Amino acid sequence: MFKKKKIRLKKFTLHPITTFILMTILVMIVSSILSFFQIQSSYSRINAANELESVAVSVEGLFNFEGFKYLISNAAMNFVSFTPLSTLLIALIGLSVASASGLIDTFIKRVTLKINNKTLTFIIIFVATISSIINDVGYVILIPLSALIFLANGRNPLLGIVASFCGVAFGYGVTLFAGSAEITLVEVTESAARLIDANFHVSLLSNLIAIIISTIIVSLVGTYVIETLVAKRIGRYHLTSEEKENLLGETKEINVNEVEIEQQRKLEADIREKKGLRNALITFIIFILMFIYMLIPGLPGSGLLLDMSETAYINQLFGENAYFQEGFTFLVSILFLATGIAYGIGAKTIKSDKDLVEKASVYLKDVGYLVALVFFAAQFIAIFKKTNIGTLMVGLISGMIRSIPFSGVPLIIAVLVLMAASSFFVTTQTAKWTIFAPVVVPLLMQNNVSPQFAQFIFRAADSMVKGFTPLLAYFVIYLGYLNIYNTEKKPISIKKALSFVAPYCFIISITWIMIVALMYITGIPIGPGISSVL
After folding, report:
1. Whole-number Å distance between alpha carbons of 450 and 442
2. Which of 181, 247, 304, 479 has the most crowded Cβ, counting Cβ within 10 A?
3. 3-class DSSP state of 44
4. pLDDT of 248
5. CB atoms within 10 A of CB 220
6. How far apart are CA 146 and CA 201, in angstroms?
7. By C-alpha distance, which of 148, 128, 130, 150 is closest to 139?
8. Torsions phi, psi of 481, nearest 5?
9. For the residues 102-108, what does the mean pLDDT come to?
């Protein structure tokens, strides 16, 4: 008898750039099909007179002459105006100097190596979660920094990248303080509430207690997921010979006479490191004091980072034209730059400006790969937005919410899940809440749920699946760093990058549903004097 031979299909992995190109073409084709069949949706928005007006949304087909003309003529603008690239480059300037001077390595060696792995993961996720108080700074600062910290601790840097990305993406909109989210959401919530009650007021602190509780819970659950599930999926990191030498030191046989020389060398290096850290600490304190002074209004020369055209202090900090919010990434980069130089001078790791620039350039060697990846990701996201498919889907989902037949907890969970689903197509908070608020807020008010709690439900929904879509602009930064630290021959594809965050997304989504449901059932205040019910 003849033995049957098993035919095995060779697995292949598409490079992320190829995938972005194919997805761009696919979106253009799908948009033309939807446009041909005149697929439409509509949603309600609140006009200047605080009245509802209907807005029709139709898909713009781009797989045609005009579509390709748009893609070609706007490719450069789509790339240049892609915010994640500029913010990342600004952040990397400071990080590269801090790394080149040896500040980051010394800090990790003296501080983070003494911290338990799980505690360190919790700290990274917690900081990543609260970083959303100032827009998207967490993505560009914490992703590269977490990779360095995990690598120096002998752990897989890919795990650090996933942890920091998930912390920001799946905890976006909750923090320990009122921040930029309050400025963008509260005004829309209040306008929607006044469709039912013309005098209703929503405080900027109306979600404060809820977001503090959520931040702690999400960080603890996230740490568990990363350490028990994601770490197993990613596996151990295989160090290159150069990395082993940097972490462990060059291994060689030394005779008795060389022992004293080696000990003396280590002692001198330790003295230089301590002097460098002292300089960095002094520079850090001076910088922070100056930073705080620039945030205090009314003092001589103070208020540099505030928008003094606003009356409320939180608006001065996080308003649309606030210098603090717009320039925060640059300020953090300057902090790394200044402390890195101060350390380098004290530790004598920097002997000249030429030496500094050359060392810093080594850290930036992989930026070329990121730039190429960002270019094609920017085209994909721009084309998707141009088609209006995302807005169409959000409009359809808002219509589904309007017709939900439930009440109480089932209604709240249904609203939460449907709004969360919209994040696959539109990732911008304000864009979604502008469409959902005129439907969700009145609907829940009619079911005795407060507008403030409706706003919190939206914040939870926005955080549930935000990191599980390549349409999130900062997903490409996460994907890029995964490939920079990838030691396998095959590139890490978009599919594999999503598989890393899948367990986190699933469990955090369940956690968010439980948080929202329990807060409603128990009646825990969600803000000072604010309840989940009217």
Report:
1. 9
2. 479
3. strand
4. 47
5. 14
6. 41
7. 128
8. -70, -30
9. 89
Instruction: List the one residue out of 72, 83, 68, 160 whose CA is nearest residue 374.
Output: 83
CA distance linking residue 437 with residue 45, whole number of Å: 8
- What does the domain layout of the chain look like in residue ranges? 70-248+258-522
Question: Six-digit token pair at 424?
Answer: 């696959």
What pLDDT shows up at residue 246? 53
Q: Give how far Cα 163 sits from Cα of 152, 213, 226, 498, 504, Å.
A: 16, 20, 7, 13, 9
Q: How many CB atoms lie within 10 A of CB 219?
A: 23
- pLDDT tens digits, residue range 271-328? 888 899 999 999 999 999 998 998 888 888 788 888 888 888 888 888 777 788 878 8
**How many other C-beta atoms can be found within 10 angstroms of the C-beta atom of residue 251?**
7
Whether the CB-CB separation of 101 and 405 falls below 8 Å is answered with no
Closest to 370 measured CA to CA, from 291, 476, 297: 476
CB of 448 closer than 8 Å to CB of 533? yes
User: Residue 358: CA atoms inside 13 Å, Cβ hemisphere, count?
Assistant: 7
Confirm whether pTM is higher than 0.85: yes
The answer to whether 102 and 350 are in contact (CB under 8 A) is: no
Torsion of CA 488, 491, 492, 493, to 10 degrees: -150
**What string of H, E and C letters represents the secondary structure of 349-364?**
CCCCHHHHHHHHHHHC
Q: Which pair of structure tokens corresponds to residue 157?
A: 């840097």
